[in-house]
Design a protein that fits this description.
Elements lengths: L3 E10 L6 E11 L4 E5 L6 H8 L7 E6 L2 E2 L7 E4 L11 H11 L4 H14 L15 H14 L4 E5 L7 H16 L7 E6 L2 H7 L2 E6 L4 E7 L8
Parallel strand pairs: 3-8, 3-9, 6-7, 7-8
Antiparallel strand pairs: 1-2, 1-4, 4-5, 9-10
Helix pairs in contact: 2-3, 2-4, 3-4
The structure holds adenosine-5'-diphosphate (2 copies).
GO molecular function, one term: ATP hydrolysis activity
Protein name: ABC transporter ATP-binding protein
Keywords: ATP-binding, Nucleotide-binding, Transport
Length: 231
């Protein structure tokens, strides 16, 4: 039984003459253990689909199932790493991660260790009391990753997580993420990454779901058959 399954998902925006179909008839599954990339041009509905999968938005029609149960009947426990980090600027690195745990109701004693451990894992040891503005883009996104992973989501969603970074920072962060993921250090069942970067999708994912626009729909699914160190 797949971790996530979308059945005939459709999203219509606007009404009357402005009514248009952003995504049409999307069927897809995400299995446990998979790193899936959602690849397509700007405007094909990738962000819309991410919001639907994480329950931030209900589709106009169709079904989203988590382990076979409709999304509105379960707490899906997914987190998102955003393109532009979305950190709270008035909170320190530690406080940004700690707050995410607090919101999920994690007890204070557990929170501190979990946050420090995660920050250490992503290479931010020593930066706990820094503010986001004092960090480089790459380091800010590491906080974004630490915050998303700390709550141990079943599905970790990444929305163009490297596209706001310079090439070198993006390259090194991709490598570090893959190292953590392949070594099992990320306690999540699957990763779904939205991107319009083909190389990034093929390098990182086990499977690439291709989308196209007008209307947004899935036009193919590509298994990456290169031998993976995880196997
Ligand atoms: P992508 O992430 O692939 O760029 P989006 O999901 O952001 O695609 O957008 C798909 C299409 O739907 C675009 O044409 C966008 O302008 C439109 N759209 C997205 N969100 C909304 C919204 N809340 N209301 C109206 N149109 C929207
Ligand atoms: P991205 O493509 O990086 O996700 P966008 O700039 O397309 O970002 O969209 C940013 C936000 O604006 C999203 O929440 C999206 O739903 C909303 N949005 C995008 N297009 C429209 C639109 N035509 N009308 C209303 N809201 C929109």
């Amino acid at each position: 039984i797949p971790l996530v399954e979308l059945k005939n998902v459709q999203q219509v925006y606007g009404s009357g003459a402005r009514r248009f179909t952003a995504i049409q008839d999307v069927n897809l599954i995400i299995r446990e253990g998979e790193f899936v990339a959602l690849l397509g041009p700007s405007g094909c509905g990738k962000s819309t689909l991410l919001r639907i999968i994480t329950g931030l938005q209900s589709p106009t029609s169709g079904q989203v199932l988590y382990r076979g149960t409709p999304l509105h009947d379960v707490n899906p426990y997914a987190t998102i790493v955003f393109q532009t980090f979305a950190l709270f600027p008035w909170l320190t690195v530690f406080e940004n991660v700690d707050l995410a745990l607090k919101v999920r109701g994690v007890a204070a004693e557990v929170r501190k260790n979990r946050a420090l451990e995660l920050l250490d894992k992503v290479g931010l040891d020593g930066f706990e009391t820094a503010y986001p503005r004092e960090l480089s883009g790459g380091m800010r996104q590491k906080v974004g990753f630490a915050r998303a992973i700390a709550v141990e989501p079943e599905l970790l969603c990444l929305d163009e997580p490297f596209s706001a970074l310079d090439l070198l920072s993006a390259e090194s962060l991709r490598g570090e993420l893959m190292e953590l993921w392949l070594s099992g250090a990320i306690p999540t069942r699957a990763i779904l990454m939205v991107t319009h970067n083909i190389e990034e999708a093929v390098f990182m994912a086990d499977r690439v779901i291709l989308m196209d626009k007008e209307p947004g729909r899935v036009v193919g699914s590509l298994d990456i058959t290169l031998p993976h160190p995880r196997q």
